[in-house]
Design a protein that fits this description.
five-stranded mixed barrel, mainly beta, OB fold (Dihydrolipoamide Acetyltransferase, E2P)
Length: 113
């Protein structure tokens, strides 16, 4: 098993990396799903392509905000990704599911009195 590193340590020239963290944001664009994963060091984008990894693409369909996930994959340079690096996953697992609905939405602005 490959040792997990923090998102801030992911370099685009590495062969393979493992990261773990909370699902910060989910964008589903049909045959493409972007997960933004947050750990204590920052954010990283994971790109699931249905044509490349159909099993992983199917598995990510049930992920929820703030679920804890572990991803292994190849880091690639990307101008659109947070930090300039995204991961093309080869392994994906949900370690723990967040309570649903979340008691407090942490990724959106909240009005308070």
């Amino acid at each position: 098993m490959i040792e997990r590193i923090h998102t801030s340590d992911v370099e685009p020239d590495a062969d393979e990396v493992a990261i773990a963290g909370h699902v910060h944001e989910i964008r589903d664009l049909g045959g493409l799903v972007f997960l933004i994963v947050r750990d204590r060091e920052g954010l990283i984008q994971i790109v699931f392509k249905e044509e490349r990894e159909p099993e992983l693409f199917e598995a990510v369909q049930d992920v929820g905000a703030e679920d804890v996930v572990r991803v292994v994959g190849e880091p690639l340079e990307s101008d659109q990704a947070p930090g300039g690096v995204e991961i093309a996953p080869t392994e994906y697992e949900v370690i723990d599911e967040a309570e649903s609905p979340l008691p407090l939405e942490i990724s959106k602005d909240i009005e308070v009195d």
